[in-house]
């Protein structure tokens, strides 16, 4: 099988198409034939060495995928060969490959309303939006939700999910992306290049996909009992933001993705029931992974970029 592998840390040029042995599933594991695999900012952060959660090279990147179960290991009861599934994984044996080996707890039945290209874009950005809005913030109808980088991977899912739960959704994005976000259902849009979002008041939930000064600035927009969720996870020290939040009677949560099988199934159900659908800006062949990395690192992607083996 082909994998996109790196033997050193660096720019997109370190990514190589390499022939590898197809792995065999052990107990509790499932081998999935990858039909589509999304790219996320995390892929660039790991490739460059900015984050080192997953060890040193050689690494195969790729955190999210959709495909068909090829083989199951002993004790797997929930899936059998031929099942269409989607899921998440981590390096060093990621999903930017023809096959990915995962525990059965990392996959769920593919939403019936999505093809593989769209289902391959759910496992990181989509689940992040789902877990933050549904599990942590428990967004209710009528609440005011501010989504930063609303046109990005996490952001565009957050807009759709918050709307599906009856919220009033405010997004930050460049003006050129406002028509896209209005189509997704956003109620109010702020071009962060010309307007200051801190003028907002009585926001119940902020999804911060930017971090740095966006955390403390976002706190100013929250009403009493509101919640700021930082999904960036790395970079600046957030101690001061936490203290500021506590002093102001609002909550601050630092989010790290760790989906349970119930979340995967719950998200798939929401997709099918509420028409939540990723927007895929570009689909590229697996062998063009380096180009996909360049696109995601531009910071300008609208929705998702997906690789197709
Ligand atoms: N902790 C976790 O487990 C976890 C999980 C998922 C994601 N993340 C992190 O969350 C962050 C966002 O991920 P993503 O996939 O959504 O990124 P992304 O898709 O690359 O975001 C791109 C979008 O960001 C917008 N943008 C850039 N700067 C902005 C600003 N100052 N204000 C408003 N919008 C801005 C761009 O739109 P414009 O052209 O309008 O600027 C673009 O549409 C990344 O750092 C990622 O690593 C963490």
Overview of this protein structure:
The chain has 309 residues and is α/β, with parallel strands linked by helices. It has 2 domains: 2-124 and 259-308, Medium-chain alcohol dehydrogenases, catalytic domain (Quinone Oxidoreductase, Chain A, domain 1); 125-254, NAD(P)-binding Rossmann-like Domain (Rossmann fold). It is built from 9 helices and 16 strands. It has helices at 41-48, 116-119, 125-136, 153-164, 178-184, 214-219, 239-247, 261-274, 289-297, and strands at residues 2-6, 15-19, 29-39, 59-60, 64-72, 84-88, 99-103, 107-109, 144-147, 168-172, 188-190, 203-208, 222-230, 251-254, 280-285, 304-308. Strands 3, 5, 6, 7, 8, 15 and 16 form a 7-stranded mixed β-sheet that branches. A 6-stranded parallel β-sheet has the order 11-10-9-12-13-14, with helices on both faces. Strand 1 (2-6) and strand 2 form a beta hairpin. It binds NADP nicotinamide-adenine-dinucleotide phosphate (NAP). NADP nicotinamide-adenine-dinucleotide phosphate is lined by residues 40-42, 124-125, 128, 148-149, 151-155, 172-174, 177, 192, 209-210, 231-233, 255-257, 296, 299-302.
């Amino acid at each position: 099988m082909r994998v996109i592998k790196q033997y050193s840390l660096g720019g997109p040029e370190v990514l190589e198409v390499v022939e590898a042995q197809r792995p065999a599933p052990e107990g509790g594991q499932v081998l999935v034939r990858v039909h589509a695999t999304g790219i996320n900012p995390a892929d660039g952060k790991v490739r460059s060495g900015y984050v080192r959660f997953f060890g040193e090279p050689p690494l195969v990147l790729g955190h999210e995928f959709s495909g068909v179960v090829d083989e199951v290991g002993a004790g797997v009861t929930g899936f059998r060969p031929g099942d269409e599934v989607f899921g998440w994984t981590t390096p060093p044996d990621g999903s930017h490959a023809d096959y990915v080996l995962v525990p059965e707890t990392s996959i769920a039945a593919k939403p019936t309303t999505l093809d593989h290209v769209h289902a391959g874009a759910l496992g990181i950005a989509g689940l992040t939006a789902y877990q933050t809005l549904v599990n942590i913030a428990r967004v209710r109808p009528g609440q005011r939700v501010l989504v930063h980088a609303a046109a990005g991977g996490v952001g565009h899912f957050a807009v759709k999910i918050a709307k599906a739960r009856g919220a009033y959704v405010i997004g930050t994005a460049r003006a050129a992306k406002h028509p896209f976000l209005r189509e997704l259902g956003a109620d109010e849009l702020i071009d962060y290049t010309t307007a200051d979002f801190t003028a907002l008041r009585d926001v119940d939930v902020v999804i911060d996909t930017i971090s740095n000064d966006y955390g403390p600035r976002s706190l100013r927009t929250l009403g009493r009992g509101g919640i700021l969720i930082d999904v960036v996870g790395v970079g600046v020290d957030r101690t001061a933001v936490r203290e500021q939040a506590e002093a102001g009677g609002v909550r601050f949560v630092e989010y790290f993705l760790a989906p349970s099988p119930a979340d995967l199934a719950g998200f798939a159900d929401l997709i099918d029931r509420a028409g939540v659908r990723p927007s895929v800006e570009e689909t590229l062949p697996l062998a063009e992974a380096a180009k996909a990395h360049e696109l995601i690192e531009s910071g300008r992607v609208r929705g998702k970029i997906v690789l197709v083996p």
